[in-house]
Amino acid sequence: MKDCIRIVHGSDSDFYLTVRPSEDEISLYEESKNGFAKIANRSGVSSIQCCDWSNQRPGMVAAGLLNGNTLLLDLGTQNWPAVIPVRQSRPCNAVSFSSNGLLATGLDKVRNDHCLNIYSVNDDFTSSSSFQPVYSLLPSESLFSLAFVPDSPDILLAGSHKFLRIIDLRNPAASLQIPAKSAEDITINKLNTNLFSFRSDSGSFSIWDQRYLSATSPAPLFAMQSKQWPQAATECFRFSPYSAQTFATLDTYTSSSLRLWRSEIVAPSDSALTLSQSLSALHTSDVQLPPQKPLQDKLWLDRCRVIRPDSESIVSFDFGANSHSFVGLRPYGDLVYYAIPPLIDGLQFDSSNSLTSACNDDLSFVDLKGANLTRAMTSLSLTRGPARDANGADSIISDESSVLSANETTSQSFGYNPVTVLSEDIGSRMRARASLGYDLDPVKNLEILRSFAQISSLQYLIDMWDWINLSEKLRRADMLRTDVCDFHLQGVLGIWNGRYATSARPGSKKKRDVLEQNIAKIAGKIEPNMYINSAFRGVLRTSKKSNYRILCLAAAGWSYSDSEFTEKLQKLQDKGEYEVAAALALFHGDISLTIDILAHSGKESLRLISTAVAGYFAYKDSTENSLWKEQCRAMASELVHPYIRAIFAFIADSRWHDVLDEVSLPTRDRLVIALKYLTDDDLDRYLKRLCAQVVKDGSLDGLSVTGITPDGISLLKTYVDHTADVQTAALVSGFCVPHLFQSHLAEQWFGIYREFLDGLKMFPERARFDIGKTKLGKMYGGTPEICSPQIVLRCNGCNKIIDLSSRKDNASGLQRNLDPGRLDNGHQFGSTTCPHCNKPLPRCTICLRSLGSPIVGSSYNASSKKKNTVYDQWFNFCLICGHGMHAGHAQEWFGLHQMCPVPGCLCQCLFNR
Amino acid sequence: MHNFNTNHEDLIHDVSYNFYGTRLATCSSDQTVKVFDLDESADSTNWILNDSFKAHEASVTRVVWAHPEFGQVIATCSFDRTIKIFQEVDHEPRTSGRRWKRVAVLPDSRGPVHDISFAPVHLGLKLAANGADGTLRIYEAIEPHNLYYWSLVFEKVVVPEPEGAREADASYCLSWCGSKYAPEQLVVGSLSRCYIFRKSSDDKYAQCEELPGHTGSLREVAWAPSMGRSFELVATACQDEKVRIFKLSPKSDLESSQALVSSAPDRLPQTADTVPTGDHKYDVELIGEFDDHKAQVWRVSWNVTGTVLASAGDDGRIRLWKSAYSGPFQCMSVISAENKCSDATD
C-alpha cells in the first residue's frame, strides 16, 4: 500500500487520517490556524497493507497487515491494539468498516480457506479479545478491495482477482458479480450510494451504478478511457463529499496534477423521445408509443478542471473541510492545503458596461449602472485605481487618444481597477456624454466636453466641435454661401477643389464659371473684415485662386480682423499660453509681436527664446551665420512644446515646410500656414497629402481639411475603426447625411448609435438625435421621412381601408369623431358605418353600439362627475382576441376584470399584451 | 465589485442580461432557472427575485433572453438534451414558481446541448444551438407571436461525434454576429474546430472561414458587436489555456474604400460609399493570443461596444482586455473571484 490521506468527518470538526506504510505510521491531523496539527499518532505499525476507519467509533482504525492479521487501533487512547489473527499467514489486502459495526477483511487466497471474513466489532474489546468471524465467504478468491455501502450496511462490494461482487449479507450465496480483473480501490459515493468506482488492472478508473449491474452486458456509467485521457494513470480517486456529481483524481504521469471532474447523470435518451412524442400526441391523437425499456442512465462528463499544485508533488489527497479545498499529502508526510479556485462560468456585460460573473453559486458585479458612471466620469482623475506598475504610469490607455503611457510596449498586465477600465471605455464615455445631452448642438457639446475631468485626452474632440461650431456660426451669418453654392462644412480641401458645392453637372464648363463667380462673391464678403498683412497680400496677388484662399481661411476659422486677432492673442496670454500666442503671431507674419509676447511672458525660458528669435529677426536677410541656424535647427528637434518647436523650425531656415509636417501642431494651424505662405501648386499638393494623411490616421481635427464630405466619412471610418466611437461619427455625419449626400456608412452609424441608446433605455436622447437630424435636414430643404402608418382599420364588409387622411375633403363622421374641435361642440357623432360600403362598423362589446357612436353608460350620465373626454370615445381593440370597445368602457371594465367582456371569450386581454 | 447571493443550490452555469440590462437570468446545476429584476428606483443596484423554477431534468447549461420585441422570453438548454422556451405570464404572482410558462420544447439533440443563442433581432426570432452530438441547429419561430411552434431551419454536423463522447471533456459553443449591416452569420466552436457559418446569397447557410490554431476544445466563442467598424472581432476561450482574438476584415470592401479617398475632384457627391454586394469573404487574422490565465479558459465576453473583452479561466480570475488606439489588445485588469465560504471563515 502506498501512503494515503483521507478526510474523516467527525461530529463537529473534520480530521485527516494519514496512513504511511513507508514510515510504519498512522496519524490523525486536525486543521488549525497555522496549518495542520497532529493530534494522534501511532508509529511502529509495520507492513501495513490496507486501512479503514470507523464512523461509529471516532478514532478507531483497522489496519490489515502483510501477515494477514488485522490491527484494531484506537488513536484516541494509547492502548495497544487488538489483533484479529488469521489461521494461515497471507497478506490482508482490504479492510472495511460497515455503519453497523461490522468489519470485513479481505485476504489473499490460500487453499481451503475463506478469503473474506466479517467480524463484529460492536462490543468493547481489549487487546486480549478473541474475534470469531460472523461470516466467512469466498473461498480461494484473492480479494483486493472491499467497501460496505454506507446507508445499507448489509451490502458489501468486494473486488477480487476475477470479479467485482455485490454481496448481500442477508443472503450471501446469491451475490451479484460482474467480470472485472483486480478491482482495486473500490470507492462509494456517499451522496449517491448507487455509484461506486474502482480501478481496473489497466490503472484507469471507471464509475458504475449498482442498479444496472444485473443487465445482460453491464457497462460502466463512465470509464476513463485511455484514448480520451492518455495521461490518466490515476493514482487516487475520491468522490466529493459535497456534490454527488463531482469527483477528483490525482495523476502521477504528469507532475502530480489534480483533476476535478464534474459529471452529469442524464436519463436515457428515450425519455426525451417520449417527451417529444407526448407533445406531438397532444396535437395528433393517436401516436403509438413504443414499449418502455428500462434503459441505463448515462453519465456525461461536464468538465474537467486541472488544479496544479504549485511546487512539490503530492502522493495522495482528499477533499478538504469545505467544497473548495483539497488536502494533499507530500512524500515526506507533510500535509498541504490547496484552494480550488472558484469556477467562473457565466460572464456577461450588460448594455451599461457593467460586468457580471457567476462565481460558483453566486454572482459578482463590477457595477457601472446608474449614477455611478457620471460620477466616475467627471472625477476620473481621482478614481485612477491602484496602479501597481512600477513605472508609475499614471495614464490608462485611453481608447480615443493616441497618447499612450510610457510602458505601452510591454505586454504585462496593467493592473488597473476594473471599474476604471470600464468607465474609461468608449461605451461608458458615450453613455455619459449622451446622458449629459451630447447631441447635434456644437456649443452644448463643447460645454459638456469641457466639464469632464480628463480634458486633455478629449482635446481632439473639443477641437473638432470647435471647428463645427465655427462652421455653424458662419452658416448662420450666411458667410459661406450664395443662392447657388454652399461651402458649408466642405472643409478646406472641398473649397479649394470646389468639389461638392454646386448641384450643377460636374466637369461642365458652366459649373466652373458658376463656381468662380460665387466664390468671388463670397470672398468679396469676407475680405474686408479680414486682416491681411503685406506678405499675405503678396501671396494673394500671385495666386490664381486667391478668392479660394480667402474662403479656405474663413472655413478654417482664420477670418480675423486686426482687432479680433489682437484680442485672441491677449486671451491666450491671459491664460498663460504664451507659446501658442507667440507662434500664432509668427504664423500671422508678425515676428516683432512674437518677440514681444515671449519677452513679456514672465517665464525665464521663454524670455531666452525671445532673444533667439530676436537674433533671427536681426539677421534674417543675411545668408551667413550658419552656426546660429544650425543651433536653431537642433533646438527645433529637441524642444518639447510643439509651438516653440514650430517657431524654431521656421526661423532656422525661414521656410515653413518643416512646420507644415509637424504632426503635433493642430491641423487647423498648419492649414493656416499653408494657405498663407505656399504657392498654388505647393498648396494643392500639400492639401492632397494632408487629406490622405488625416484619412489614414483617422484624426478628427483633420475634418477641417476634408470637411463633412465623402472624404470626411472615410476619415470617420478610420476613426471608428480605431475607437468604436460611433457616437461622434453619427453626430458629425448627421450634419450632412443624408441631406447633402448619401452614405451607407453614415446610415449604419445612425442605426448603431440609435440601437446603443435604445439598449440603455435612453429613448429621449435617441429621439432628440432624430429630431436634431431632421431639423438640420429641413434647413437644407430636405423632407423629413415619416414612416408609413403601422396599423390600419379595414372594413369587414368591403375589405377596404377606412383611411381618414384621404377623405379630408368631405369630413366623414369618423373624421369628425376623431376631431376634438367638433366634439367640443357637443354635437352628434356622425356615421357609424364604413364610408365605402355603408356597412356598420364594429360594435363596442360593452354598449353594443357601433364604432363612432357616442359613449353611454352609468358613469357617462349628464349628472355624473366623470368628464366625458375625447379619449373615452375612441375605440380600443385587444390585439389577441380582436374584441373591441370604447376606450372609456375599456377603462371601466379592465379596472375590475382581467378577462375579455365578450361572453365565452377566455382571452386574458389585460395581460396578453 | 460586489457579490450577490442567488440561493442556487449548485454551480451557476450561465448568467444572462436582457437587452436593457434590467433583468438577469441565471441557470444552475440544481436544474433551476432564476430571473431577477433590477430595482430601478434604488440608487444602487439591487436585484429582486422575480421567480425561480425547475427548468430541466439535468444541469441547465445556458440561459438566454430573446429581444424584448418578442416579449419576455427566455430559452434554456441542458444536459437533458432539450432546449426549452419560457415566456413570462404577467398574471401569475412573483416568486410563485409559475410565472414563467414553458411554451416549447425542442428535443432534437441526441446529446447534451451546450450552447444556445438568439439571433440578432433584425433576423427574426431565431435560435441556434450546438451540442454534444456535434450538430449545429438553427430554429425559427416563423410567427414570432406564437412561440409554440418552432421549425428547424438548418441542421448540420459540424464535427463528427467523437468516440466515447460522454467521457470526453468536450465543449461546443456558438455566437451570432449581431450587426444589422453584415450578412447573417455566426461563429461555431465544436471541439477544437472553429468555423464561421454564413447565409450566402442563395439564402442557405454555408460553412465558411475557419478560425485556426486551437489545440483544445473551444469553451466559448464571442462575436464582438461591430459598432460600425469596418472589421469584425471574434474572441475564443480554449481548453489549451489561451484567449485568442481574431480580426475578420472583409475582402471586397477594401478596394472600394481605397478608391474613394483618391476619387476625382468632379465626382458626383450623391454617394460616399456603396452598399457591399455579393457574398462576403473575410480575411482571418489572429491579432491576439494570450496565455495569461495559465489554466484553461472557460469564458470570454465582449462589452456592448466590442472594445473590452473579459475572459475567465480556471485560475479563478477574470481578466479585462482592451486595445489601445489601433494597438494590440492588452490585459488591463485582473479581478480575483473569491470563494464565499473562505471569506466567512477567515
TrEMBL record, chain A:
BP term (GO), one: positive regulation of TORC1 signaling
GO CC terms of this entry: cytoplasm; Seh1-associated complex
Family: Belongs to the WD repeat mio family.
Residue span, GATOR2 complex protein MIO zinc-ribbon like domain: 795-909
Database matches in SUPFAM superfamilies: WD40 repeat-like
Species per Swiss-Prot/TrEMBL record: Tortispora caseinolytica NRRL Y-17796
The keyword Magnesium is assigned to this record: no
Protein name, UniProt field: Uncharacterized protein
Automatic annotation (TrEMBL), chain B:
Places the protein is found: Endomembrane system; Nucleus, Nuclear pore complex
Listed Pfam families: WD40
PROSITE patterns in the cross-refs: WD_REPEATS_2, WD_REPEATS_REGION
SUPFAM superfamilies (UniProt xref): WD40 repeat-like
The keyword ATP-binding is assigned to this record: no
Recorded topology in the membrane: Peripheral membrane protein
Cellular component, GO, one term: nuclear pore outer ring
One Gene Ontology biological process: mRNA transport
Chief localization: membrane
Sequence ranges of the WD repeats: 5-46, 290-322
UniProt KW Repeat keyword: yes
Similarity-based family: Belongs to the WD repeat SEC13 family.
Name of the featured protein: Anaphase-promoting complex subunit 4 WD40 domain-containing protein
